[in-house]
Amino acid sequence: MKLDLSEEATEYGRQALRAFEAAGGDELVQAAERDPASRAGLVAPVLAELGAEDLDPRGDAEELEAAAALCRAAGYRAVPYPVAERLARPAARAAARAAGGLVVVADAHPSGPVAELDLCWDAVTLDGRRSTAVARPPDSPPRTSMFVTGLDLRPADGDGAEDVALGLVLPCWTLLGMLDRAIDLTREHVRVREQFGQALARFQGVQFQLTEAEVERSGVEVLAKYALWSIQTGCEEATDDALALRLAAVEAAEVVFRVAHQLHGAIGFCDEAFLSWLSRHSQPLRRLPLGPSATADRLAHRLGRRGLTGLFGGAPERVAL
Prior knowledge:
This protein is an alpha+beta fold. Strands 1-3-4-5-2 form a five-stranded mixed β-sheet. A two-stranded antiparallel sheet has the order 6-7. Helix 10 (238-264) runs antiparallel to helix 13 (292-303). It has helices spanning 7-23, 27-34, 39-50, 61-76, 83-87, 91-96, 142-145, 161-192, 204-232, 238-264, 274-281, 283-287, 292-303, 316-319; strands at residues 101-105, 111-112, 121-125, 129-135, 149-159, 194-195, 198-199.
């Protein structure tokens, strides 16, 4: 089992970070909130420059890793664009450059972070029912909706079961990038902020909280790499692994952002601190298609009594190094 991205994918992720920084960095999401119609114009040229449209995450293992690295870089900057959904588009649509992307949706009230984008979308439920989707006009501004809007679905032919794993895993890599950034922002804040004559970072309680957050973040990173490997190798349990990753990611996000906000204090809820933007725009990834409790329930019903296979499971052939 391979739990590290290739050097090429890692370097691609670094180049993506530099490209997003050059395009505006943290200002991208702020500009998109001010002018939602500019959302595509702010980000699509950067993705074109990076060759994102040419990536084939379904057909090539190395390009799947590159797609994951790109999603992580987008999350780090809270890029206001559904990068993961675009990369996860069905194979036939990708070849024809016809679809906007793939959105994994709940059975009730399907929605996705696709407002203000003039694109056609494919949707798939967690049990593999496929649809074409059209985004409704948003009911509220991006300040409160984070570009999430309802979707009108029309059933489509074919089984979308193979779409679910990729459609779940790539957004988790975006969320992982957000957790990376939340930890970095908090670490920097406690280094420079002083209380009682010394930096916050010197207090043992602060160190314990940061350690707790980092343990959660690093655990998600390992599971994200494992779920990616599960898709690459065509494991039958790829969707189980994707759901397990999603559950771990949303639970870790609760811890990481709680710690980050606590250690930032009141400033962590003010837009002068980028943590506020990052936390707010992480909400769609944490709530859609299902929140933590509903995700755990779906995973439990899917697994029944057999449990997960994998790193700690009973299938040695899957964990041989």
